[in-house]
Amino acid sequence: xxxLHTMIRVGDLxxxxxxxxxxxxxxxxxxxxxxxxxxxxGFLGYGGDTExxxxxxxxxxxxxxxxxxxxxxxxxxxxxxxxxxxKIEQAGGRVTRAPGPMKHGTTVIAFxxxxxxxxxxxxQRKN
Length: 127
Prior knowledge:
There is one protein chain. By secondary structure, the chain is an alpha+beta fold. Helix content is about 20%, strand content about 45%. The chain has a single domain, classed as Roll (2,3-Dihydroxybiphenyl 1,2-Dioxygenase, domain 1), CATH 3.10.180. The protein has helices at about 15-25, 65-70, 80-90; strands at about 1-10, 25-35, 40-45, 55-60, 70-80, 95-100, 110-115, 120-125.
């Protein structure tokens, strides 16, 4: 398993990108719009093109979040998402979203919860 990213929700994507690049020193990697879902994802990291990333999620219809609503999830890349989810369930873990393509995209993902109900995203990585 490889740690990939942490996601937070932001009210103003451009302002957040400027903060994390100009003030914190992260490098901008990419931004992708998902018009059908009405959201944009921005990825930043210290290495630029290398993980792990900070994923900034901007939901187009939301301009502000309470801090408690801002946390999204951690993400880990896995070679076989189906086998990984089965192993997690067999060990007593909770898979809250079975493996399958993400909404409005093709990346195969799944979600599990830790003991405190924090979300962890698993992402199928290409070999």
